[in-house]
Amino acid sequence: MNENIEFLQAFLKNPLKVGSIAPSSPELAQQMVAGIRPNEESVVLELGVGTGAITKFLQDIVATRESYLGIEIDRTLVKLLKVNFPALKIVRGNACDAHSTHQKTGLGKVGYIICCLPFVSLPNDVGEKVLAEIDKFMEQGCVFRTFQYAHGYYFPSAIKLREHMRNRYGKAKRSPLVVKNVPPAYTLTWKTVQSEKG
Predict the structure, then answer these.
(1) Cβ(28)–Cβ(146) below 8 Å
(2) 50 with 72: CB under 8 angstroms?
(3) Average pLDDT taken over every residue of the chain
(4) Is-above-0.85 flag for pTM?
(5) Domains along the chain?
(6) How sure is the predictor about 34, in pLDDT bands with cuts at 50, 70 and 90?
(7) Which DSSP state fits 42?
């Protein structure tokens, strides 16, 4: 099945969890994985894998199966992802439980988080739980990267995410606007090192 159709079906079934009507473009995916160098001691965690639009690019830089963990909540998408990316560890789960999900896998420390969750459309309590999970990884030293659509950049929930991260980890590194995406989007990156948290 065409990836766009798969994504649209998932969106129509549960728009709050999918958050967009089209998967990320190759141009946005390339921005999302730029500079990411995962290995078994610095695992990349992908939250909200979707149809794997960004995973396609991550698989090219993942050293081994033990260097990647993808968490996706949609059961149908997880089945498709496991077929399309058999060499990667993808599990069905909730980003609100990301830290414990990672611990159960026995994988190494998470060094990178690639987050594709639709914070703009998530309920406030869910968004806060996800951010609390992200904080647990950031405290251990981590790179966190997400994207925000240009049209929603000043929505209250989008601002809240940036304020939460800025108050804890400083100002984001924002990419140029990726115009070859529907809709256009920015990537935002924050970084911590373990020594900063003692």
Answers:
(1) no
(2) yes
(3) 89
(4) yes
(5) 22-193 (3.40.50.150)
(6) very high
(7) B
Residue 17 burial (10 A CB sphere; 0-12, 13-18, 19+): buried
DSSP annotation string for 131-192: HHHHHHHHTT--EEEEEEEGGGTTSHHHHHHHHHHHHHH-S-EEPPPB-SSSS-EEEEEEE-
123: its two tokens: 């309920």
Q: What is the pLDDT of residues 150-189, one digit of tens each?
A: 999 999 989 999 999 999 999 999 999 999 998 999 999 9
Bond into 183 cis (ω within 30):
yes
Query: Which residue type occupies 80?
Result: L
Indicate the pLDDT class of residue 195, thresholds 50, 70 and 90: low
Nearest CA-CA partner of 141 in 110, 119, 162: 110
- Whole-number pLDDT of residue 119: 87
Q: Angle formed by the axes of helices 75-84 and 3-13, to 10°? A: 160
**How far is 39 from 147, CA to CA, in rounded Å?**
23
Tokens of 82: 């496991």
Two tokens, residue 86: 């058999």
CA 60 to the chain's CA centroid: 17
Residues 23, 3 contacting (CB under 8 angstroms): yes
63-119: pLDDT as tens digits:
899 999 999 999 999 999 999 999 999 999 999 999 999 999 999 999 999 999 988
